[in-house]
Amino acid sequence: MIIRVILAAVAVGVTAIWPRARLSAAAVLGVGAVSALVAGGGVAGDAVRATAPMLVFLTAALGVAALAERAGLSAWAAGKLAALGRGRTRRLYALVCLASGLLTCLVSLDGAVVLMVPVVRALARRCRVSFAPFFLGAVAVANAASLAVPLGNPTNLVVMSTLGLSPGSFLHHLFVPGLCAAVVCALVPARRLGRRHYVVRPAVSEEPVPMLLVPWRIGAQLTGLVAALDGLVPSLALRSGGLAALLAVAAGAAAASALANNLPVSASVAALATPGPGAYAALVGLTVGALATPHGSVATLIARDLAGQQAGRRWARLWVPATAVAVTLATLLLWASF
């Protein structure tokens, strides 16, 4: 057990320090393989089964997004948003956040960021607005809004299916908290928008967008993390419905998701949790809290890959305080719903 704890710490540390490095992904996958050999009992198979559907989905989503951008659909959507913004930067930013939230509810968190990043890139070119705040707003709103609906985040489905939570009950308890958390997260990049007005420029032909066929690095990182952390995430006391207990559960799930990625943490929560208020509090931490680090959710990893050097640095410094506020507010609203 001690060996596996050390290996898990190495995997999490390497991912946290070098979230976008290929060598880091290879190292995490290797650490996960060693941990699986030490643990035995089909840990490697469980890790592959947990991450393979996600990898297939992301491959398809990235391919569709690249084809859409090559066909000009991203530029068309950017033009529509720019026209609706009427030259006001804050209005345009609000529209981008709204579109990101709606897409999350329709095609899930991962699908939303894959579609929105090319649109934001086109907006930055057409309107000469700063890419970073619009990118951050779209990704943050998608992560937080994924709490609002069952299909918004794969982690929702993992926990719901295991614990038998109904879609109606999910919406009753988490729809409003999810929307409020999204608003809180949207306010953070709004301070960096810069000038208040923009001018829409004619569309110009751009270089073809390279196709990112299979996100192997992300798949390697997540498979390694799942294998290294399998069976090591501590159990959470999820039976109590008191405010203090719900805040503790949400904070614990948020911290674990931010450190280790919410995919392996959601599997552990689903295996160890019991139905009730605490399960919903854990979902708050899994979805909103994962935004705190660049590797906390799969969607954030893929969005930063799509954005490249424009994604910016010091992610945790910006989002740890914001997610703490959003998780606390969402948990308070959840507690009020019971």
Task: Explain what the structure shows.
By secondary structure, the protein is mainly alpha-helical. It has one domain. Helix content is 74%, strand content 0%. The chain has 14 helices and no strands. It has helices at residues 2-17, 22-39, 43-70, 73-85, 89-127, 131-145, 154-163, 167-190, 216-229, 243-260, 262-272, 277-287, 298-307, 315-336. Helix 1 runs antiparallel to helix 2 (22-39), helix 10 (243-260) runs parallel beside helix 12 and helix 12 (277-287) packs antiparallel against helix 14 (315-336). The longest helix has 39 residues, at 89-127. The radius of gyration is 19 Å and the shape is globular. The mean pLDDT is 84.
Q: What is the H-and-E element order?
A: HHHHHHHHHHHHHH
Shape, per Cα inertia axes = globular
Query: Strand fraction band?
Result: under 5%
User: How many domain regions?
Assistant: 1
Poorly predicted spans: none
Tell me the helix content.
over 70%
Distance between the first and last residues' Cα: 39 Å
- Decide which structural class fits the backbone: mainly alpha
Rg is: 19 Å
Kindly report the average pLDDT value: 84
By DSSP, the count of extended strands is 0
Q: What characterizes the major β-sheet?
A: none
Features:
mainly alpha, single chain, 338 residues, 14 helices, globular
Question: Would you kindly provide a brief summary of this structure?
Answer:
Helices cover 74% and strands 0% of the residues.
Note the topology.
Elements: H1 2-17, H2 22-39, H3 43-70, H4 73-85, H5 89-127, H6 131-145, H7 154-163, H8 167-190, H9 216-229, H10 243-260, H11 262-272, H12 277-287, H13 298-307, H14 315-336
Helix pairs in contact: 1-2, 1-9, 2-9, 3-5, 3-9, 4-5, 5-6, 5-13, 6-8, 7-11, 7-12, 8-14, 10-11, 10-12, 10-14, 11-12, 12-14
